[in-house]
Amino acid sequence: MTTANSPASKEVVTAALLVIGSKILSGRTKDQNIGYIAQYLTALGIDLKEVRVVGDEERAIVDALNALRHRCTYVFTTGGIGPTHGDITTGCVAKAFGVPIDADPCALAILHEWVKATGAEMNEARLRMTRIPKGAALVLNKVSGAPGFWIGNVIVMAGVPSIMQAMLDEAAPKLKIGVRVLSETVRADTREGDIGMQLGEIAKANPAVAIRSYQFFDPRQGANTNVLLHRSSRLRNARSRICWSECGEHDQNSA
Q1: Residue 53, CA distances (Å) to 64, 128, 159, 161, 180 in order
Q2: For a pLDDT cut of 70, what percent of the chain falls above it?
Q3: Radius of gyration of the chain measured on its C-alpha atoms
Q4: Residue 29 belongs to what domain range?
Q5: Does a structural domain hold residue 17?
Q6: pLDDT at 1
Q7: How confident is the model over 73-94, as a mean pLDDT?
Q8: Whole-angstrom Cα distance, residue 191 to residue 210?
Q9: Are 126 and 22 found together in one domain?
Q10: How far apart are CA 91 and CA 62, in angstroms?
């Protein structure tokens, strides 16, 4: 198996992200994880295919998880593994996989060490965070102790950005990776409507290159457009080179 610690393979590796939390849907909490995870996975050659946001409702979480895990190589979840009654993600994951859930001895030992080191109290609420579905492996949390977990192709992480990032770093070396993508941005110095047809013709002639345009406002020049190009790092055909030259000067980077 090719992992993040070994050379990329030709395999297409896909992922979905399930963001869990009614506070996200209500607008009370602004998500800070989607963009970070998307960039992180792209850099590993993992194609993020879909992002869903669901509230703290068992049926919605279980249904979304079952749909996504059968469609993608990996499913990452964020949110809902904290100490409160509203944190129901762990139980929902166990239900989706049809396995029991109980206090995990390793998770319990980790939390006891954290409580001892911080002077916090080991109470019933914190003990909730040691409940792990049977058969899951722990995803360590170097920020606040309580771990996430990995079961099947599902990686369950916290919603707090700093904790999620630490967990993602822990999981990353074990992930299969695919073909990395080269990403380039070309500033068109024109309005999107002025080059829409030309971009369509270039995209049609270069099907192996994903071409997207994004309009922005330049305070000095007004409406302007960035053209973003994606191609496989293994792609070296003439059409892709023609596409690059047609779209103008650019700096090439591996996404």
Answers
A1: 9, 23, 12, 16, 27
A2: 81
A3: 22
A4: 13-174
A5: yes
A6: 45
A7: 96
A8: 20
A9: yes
A10: 9
210: CATH: 3.30.70
Q: What is the pLDDT of residues 214-241, one digit of tens each?
A: 777 777 766 656 665 666 554 444 344 4
pLDDT digits (tens, 9 = 90+) for 176-197: 988 776 667 777 777 788 878 8
CA angle in degrees (0–180, nearest 5) for 151-88-52 = 70
Write out the two tokens for 180.
Answer: 């990395």
Q: Are residues 37 and 158 in the same domain?
A: yes
In this structure, which amino acid lies at residue 25? L
Would you mind telling me the total number of residues written for the chain in this entry?
A: 255
Q: How far, in Å, CA of 3 to CA of 177, rounded?
A: 6
* DSSP symbols for 5-43: TS---S--EEEEEEEE-HHHHHTSS---SHHHHHHHHHH
- Asked whether residue 127 falls in the same domain as residue 18, the answer is yes
Residue with tokens 């979304």: 64
**pLDDT value at residue 242:** 43
The number of folded domains in the chain is 2
Report the largest interatomic distance among the alpha carbons of the chain, rounded to a whole angstrom: 64
Average pLDDT, the chain: 85
Do residues 156 and 139 touch, judged by C-beta distance below 8 A? Answer: yes
Residue 6 lies in a domain: no
